[in-house]
Specification:
Number of helices: 23
Bound molecules: flavin mononucleotide
Strand content: 15-25%
Length: 644
C-alpha cells in the first residue's frame, strides 16, 4: 500500500521522468578535491543519499567559471577536464534509480577567498553581506564571458549524463546580485530598472537553453524573497517571472533569503516550522504555471505529501533531513516513520560549518554524514562486551553505533532519565525537539538490543564485578562555580537548577556567563517574565550572531528587554544586589532576587584514574573530555564505537 500517495507519485518535466516528488536539493559539502574535480568522498556521499529513494538529486554548487567559486573545494564545471568526474556522479545516482541535475553556480562577491585575493567580481563594488569585503565591478566583456560559461557548463552537464541542470539564481550569489537593487547600482543595461536587473539571469537562461537543446529540462533556483534590508519581495519580481519562463526555465525551485539574511533563513533554524516557505512556492506556481519545488525545514514525509496533495507545490525538497537520515524516505515508505532520525535544524555540522570554514560537511546527529568512506558497515569481527557510562548525546550515540556494529552494549545513566545536559537545555525556547531527539535515540538503542540502565551509578566496584572489556566514559561535565564573595547565598543557583524547574524564576535575575548556557537560560527566564541582566567577562558575546541559533537568541533577548553587559565581572553578591566591574567601573546592580551561574562546565573526573590504573580499555568522550557541542560529543561517541 502506498502510504504517501501524492509524494510517491511520478512526474514528468520535459524529458525528465521522476518516480516520485522528493528532491534532494543542492548542498555544498566541501568534499571535492582542491582542483575542483569530484573526489571519492563526493561519490560516497552522494551514492549514500541516492540510495534513499528521492526522485531527483541535485548536486551541490559547481562553479561555471574560475572567478565564481564560493568555497575552497567547490566542484568545477568550467572546463572539460571536469566531465569524467561529473559523469561518475551521474552514473552513481542513476545506478541507484534516481535522476540527477547539475547545479550551475557563480558566487559573485560571496566568496571569502576570492575577495581576499581581490578577484571577486559583482555587478557593483558593494561589500559582501557576509564577509564585508568589497568586490570589483564586473566589466561588460566579463558579463558576456560568464553568460557563455553558464552555457558551456550546461553542455558539460549534458555530456556527463545529467538529466537536468539547475541554474543557481538564489541565495545572494551572482545572479541574485544582479537582480537585487542593493547590490546592483550599474548604469548600463544590466542595472537600474527591474527589467535591466533581470537581464543577466535571462541571458544566462537563454544561453543554457541554447547549449542543452529544447527538450532538456532546466530548473531555476530563485530566492523568491531576498529577506535583507531593502531586498526584493515576491511582488517586486512578479513582473519578470514570465520572462524567466520564456528564456528557458522549465521548473522553479522556490528558495528564499541570502547567506547574508539575518538568522540564516536559507537553511532556517527551528523557529521556522516545517513548510514555512511553501506559500512562496505556491505564489510562484500560481504566477507561472510551471512545476515548482518547495523547500524549507521539511523532515516529515507526511507533511510533504500533504503539500503535494493540496497542490501547493509539485515537488518537495528535503535538505538537511538527507544529512540527518538518508534513509528517512525508505522508513516512511515502509510504514515506520518512528524510526526516522529527524533533523534538528541546528546547522552545527552542515551549513554553518561550511560558512565558518570549519571543514567538510558533517551532521551533528548522524556521524556517517561526510564520513561515508570510513564509516564501518559492520558487523565487527570481534563482538565486545561494552559498558557505556553516561546517557547524554555522546553516550547514546556511542551505544547506537556500537550496537549497530554488533557489540554487546550496556548503557548506564546515573539519573532516571537519559539526555545528560540536554534534559535541561531542551527546556529553553525552541529547543524541545532536542528532548524529542534524546527520547528517539533512547528508544532506538533499546530496539537494537542495548541494555539501558537508568538510575544506576557506575562505581569502581561495579566495573570490577561486571568486568566489561571496554568502557566508554561519557560522564559529561559539571558546572563551574566561580569564586565570588556571596556565591553561597540562598539567592544563588545554577543554570540547570533553573532550566529543570528545581528553582523557580524570580522577578529580577542576574545570569553570570554569556556563553550558550547563559544565553539560553536568560532566554528561558525572559520567557517566564523575569527581568534579566546577563553579565559576561568577554568584550563581545561568544555566541555569534552569524549562526542562526545565535542570531535568534540575541534577537529574542533584545526584544524581551534583557540587558547584556559585556566586559563585566561580578565582584560581590548580596541578598538583593550585586556589585559588578562594568568596563572597569564599579557599579551596584539592583534589585536582584536571583543570581544564576552559567559560566560553563569542566569535565567530570570520576573513574578516569581507576580505568587507567586498572588498565581497562576505555575511551573518554564528549564533555567528559572537554565540554563542547553535540556535534563533537556524537562524533567522539561514534569514533569510540567504531574503534572498539
Ligand atoms: C550544508 C548545506 C549546503 C548548502 N549548499 C547549497 C548549494 O550548494 N546550493 C544551493 O542552492 N543551496 C544550498 N543549500 C541550501 C539547501 O539546498 C536548502 O535550500 C536549505 O538547506 C533549506 O532546506 P532544508 O530546510 O530542507 O535544509 C545548502 C544547505 C546546507 C545545509
Amino acid at each position: 500500500m502506498n502510504l504517501l500517495p501524492y509524494l510517491f507519485s511520478p512526474i514528468k518535466i520535459k524529458s525528465l521522468e521522476l518516480v516520485n516528488r522528493v528532491v534532494m536539493p543542492p548542498m555544498g559539502t566541501n568534499l571535492g578535491n582542491p582542483d575542483g574535480t569530484v573526489s571519492e568522498a563526493n561519490l560516497a556521499y552522494i551514492m549514500r543519499r541516492a540510495r534513499g529513494g528521492a526522485g531527483l538529486i541535485i548536486t551541490e554548487i559547481s562553479s561555471v567559471h574560475p572567478s565564481g567559486s564560493a568555497i575552497g573545494n567547490e566542484l568545477g564545471s568550467y572546463d572539460d577536464r571536469f566531465i569524467p568526474g561529473l559523469k561518475k556522479i551521474a552514473d552513481a545516482v542513476h545506478a541507484a534509480g534516481a535522476k540527477v541535475a547539475l547545479q550551475l553556480h557563480h558566487a559573485g562577491r560571496e566568496s571569502l577567498e576570492l575577495l581576499q585575493q581581490g578577484k571577486a567580481v559583482a555587478p557593483s563594488p558593494i561589500p559582501s553581506l557576509i564577509f564585508h569585503l568589497t568586490p570589483r565591478e564586473i566589466t561588460r566583456e566579463e558579463i558576456q564571458e560568464i553568460i557563455a560559461a553558464f552555457g558551456a557548463a550546461a553542455r558539460r552537464g549534458v555530456e556527463a549524463g545529467f538529466d537536468a541542470v539547475e541554474v543557481h539564481g538564489a541565495h545572494g550569489y551572482l545572479l541574485t546580485q544582479f537582480l537585487s537593487s542593493p547590490s546592483n547600482k550599474r548604469e548600463d543595461e544590466y542595472g537600474g530598472s527591474l527589467i535591466n536587473r533581470s537581464r543577466f539571469i535571462i541571458e544566462v537562461l537563454q544561453e543554457v537553453r541554447k547549449a542543452v537543446g529544447p527538450d532538456f529540462p532546466i530548473s531555476l533556483r530563485l530566492s523568491v524573497e531576498e529577506c535583507i534590508k531593502d531586498g526584493y519581495t515576491f511582488e517586486d519580481i512578479r513582473p519578470i517571472l514570465p520572462n524567466l519562463v520564456k528564456a528557458g526555465a522549465d521548473m522553479l525551485h522556490a528558495s528564499l533569503g541570502t547567506h547574508g539574511s539575518p538568522g540564516g533563513i536559507t537553511s532556517a533554524p527551528p523557529e521556522y516550522p516545517p513548510g514555512f516557505n511553501v506559500w512562496r512556492a505556491n505564489k510562484l506556481k500560481e504566477a507561472v504555471g510551471l512545476p515548482v519545488i518547495a523547500v524549507g525545514r521539511f523532515s516529515d514525509p507526511s507533511s510533504a505529501n500533504e503539500v503535494i496533495a493540496r497542490g501547493e507545490a509539485d515537488l518537495v525538497a528535503f535538505g538537511r533531513q538527507f544529512l540527518a537520515d538518508p534513509d528517512f524516505l525508505i522508513k516512511a515508505r515502509e510504514g515506520r516513520p518512528e524510526d526516522i532520525r529527524k533533523c534538528l535544524a541546528c546547522n552545527q555540522g552542515c551549513i554553518e560549518r561550511l560558512i565558518l570554514g570549519e571543514g567538510k560537511i558533517r551532521c551533528a546527529l548522524n556521524p556517517e554524514t561526510g564520513q561515508e568512506m570510513i564509516y564501518p558497515q559492520g558487523p565487527a569481527t570481534v563482538r565486545r562486551k561494552v559498558w557505556i557510562v553516561g546517557g547524554g548525546p555522546g553516550g547514546l550515540t556511542a551505544a547506537y553505533e556500537a550496537a549497530r556494529l554488533g557489540h554487546q552494549v550496556t548503557l548506564f545513566e546515573k539519573v532516571e532519565e537519559t539526555g545528560g545536559q540536554l534534559r535541561f537545555a531542551s527546556r529553553s525556547p525552541f529547543k524541545d525537539h532536542y528532548g524529542k531527539w534524546v527520547s528517539w535515540l533512547t528508544s532506538q538503542v533499546k530496539k537494537m538490543g542495548v541494555i539501558v540502565r537508568t538510575g544506576v551509578e557506575v562505581t569502581e566496584s561495579t566495573i570490577s564485578e561486571g568486568n566489561p572489556e571496554v568502557v566508554i566514559l561519557a560522564i559529561g561535565g559539571e558546572q563551574i562555580k566561580p569564586n565570588i564573595p556571596g556565591i553561597d547565598l540562598p539567592c544563588v543557583c545554577n543554570a540547570w537548577q533553573v532550566l529543570s524547574g528545581e528553582v523557580p524564576p524570580e522577578k529580577h535575575a542576574i545570569v553570570i556567563g554569556g556563553g550558550l548556557i547563559g544565553m539560553e537560560t536568560a532566554d528561558y527566564l525572559c520567557q517566564k517574565g523575569t527581568q534579566v541582566t546577563l553579565v559576561e567577562v568577554l568584550k563581545r558575546s561568544p555566541v555569534l550572531k552569524i549562526t542562526s541559533h545565535g542570531y535568534m537568541l540575541h534577537t529574542r533577548l533584545k526584544e524581551a528587554g534583557c540587558r547584556l553587559l559585556f566586559n563585566t565581572t561580578l565582584t560581590k553578591i548580596e541578598e538583593s544586589s550585586v556589585t559588578a566591574l562594568i568596563e572597569g567601573r564599579e557599579q551596584i546592580l539592583s534589585p536582584v532576587d536571583q543570581v544564576v551561574i552559567a559560566v560553563g562546565l569542566k569535565p567530570h573526573d570520576g573513574l578516569k584514574e581507576f580505568l587507567q590504573a586498572r588498565k581497562i580499555r576505555h575511551f573518554i568522550i564528549g564533555d567528559a573530555l572537554e565540554p563542547r557541542r553535540i556535534l563533537e560529543a556524537n562524533e567522539e561517541g561514534a569514533r569510540a564505537a567504531w574503534n572498539l
